[in-house]
Amino acid sequence: MVGYKFMGKAHSHAYRDLPFYFDCDVEPVLQAVAGRDEEGVKEAAEKMGFATYETDWRRLIERDDIDLIDIVTPNNTHAEIAIAAAEAGKHILCEKPLALTLEDAQRMYNAVKKNNVVHMICHNYRFAPAIQFAKKLIQEGRLGKIYHMRATYLQDWIMDPQFPSVWRLKKEVTGSGALGDIAAHSIDMARFLVGEFEEVTGMMETFIKERPVADSSGGLSAKSASTVMEEVDVDDASAFLVRFENGAMGVFEATRFAGGNRNGNRFEINGSKGSIRWDMEQMNNLEVYFADDEDGLQGFRNITCTEEHHPFAGAYWPAGHIIGYEHTFINLMTELMKGVSEGTSPSPNFEDGIRNQEILAAIEKSVETRGWVNVKQMRLVENV
Ligand SMILES: NC(=O)c1ccc[n+]([C@@H]2O[C@H](COP(=O)([O-])OP(=O)(O)OC[C@H]3O[C@@H](n4cnc5c(N)ncnc54)[C@H](O)[C@@H]3O)[C@@H](O)[C@H]2O)c1
């Protein structure tokens, strides 16, 4: 694993817990973690259960006792690490968004294909049992023809203008702001549940244009005692409209300025025969409405997706004994282990990463041109 803070903790916890719940043909072994600060990475290795550590990620890639490289570093490092890992024949799990640019995402995809390694991107939210169950309902036609998806991803962790200038607020490290960081998850959800995007038009805003330089940061927290200010050159908030290839309409909003919303990843989908609603902060529940329910009983019902027929849920606890955020990672990594043993790259993989990146790029282009952008026109290589 390269990196060991927010996602480092989530991923290493999931690898450790996975064999406890799932029987896979291959089992993850926490062999080594890499970080640049020796004291920090040593402490992380001990706490997270890694056998060894390295202070340069290139050493991980050279080691022949390592089969899989897990990339949990800021976005500007993903391409270099993933390409080197693929060239050394290592399988890869990479955090989202795949890269800073569509060109880098394409180079990463080319490298994993050329070297025939297993690859996945960590869009973990689609692995909540309620989402997997929603997918099943949609595939079975229970919602009929899909007309609408409206998705919001609302956070509020940078609303204080004195919150420091962390890597997530610097274009050269992160690519884009709320768009690539959180709308990317809503886009993955939409592609998983509704289908491919045809065209988009968006708007982006940066409300706080400069912030104090950070002294330290990790995940969504940071400290600063500095009076030196730095420019914020990414979006604090983004919104966009979507026309899906299947004719459905999408309305999306992602912001870090929605006070009171800590991780409000939510959506509603409406079809000709029914509707569903989901809220990450109540992630075990799926609200479902079926138009053919009898008169007088019509309305949304709330299903707690913890039963045997809800995908992945049966591996955990008896019905009604809920699971949480960390289990979405365990479920994703179960697919990854299956992929490693079978030599396949389960979805979401780097191809999904490219599709997602095309949409992010199309939204940014639409903001620049103040118009609609056809997503396929962003595509760099036609047969991917
Ligand atoms: N799937 C999700 O829900 C989710 C949630 C949060 C973050 N992410 C993604 O995970 C990635 C990491 O985000 P985070 O919140 O864990 O960040 P973080 O700031 O908490 O941790 C980043 C880690 O990378 C290390 N690092 C930075 N540059 C490095 C380099 N050149 N070489 C080695 N290590 C380096 C840092 O020291 C730190 O350990 C990002 O791509 C982010 O978009 C995904």
UniProtKB/TrEMBL annotation:
GO molecular function: nucleotide binding; oxidoreductase activity
Signal peptide bounds: none
Keyword DNA-binding: no
Presence of keyword Cell membrane: no
The GFO/IDH/MocA-like oxidoreductase domain, residue ranges: 132-277
Keywords in alphabetical order: Oxidoreductase
Name of the protein described by the UniProt record: Gfo/Idh/MocA family oxidoreductase
Residue ranges constituting the Gfo/Idh/MocA-like oxidoreductase N-terminal domain according to the UniProt record: 1-121
Gene3D superfamilies named among the record's database cross-references: Dihydrodipicolinate Reductase, domain 2 (3.30.360.10), NAD(P)-binding Rossmann-like Domain (3.40.50.720)
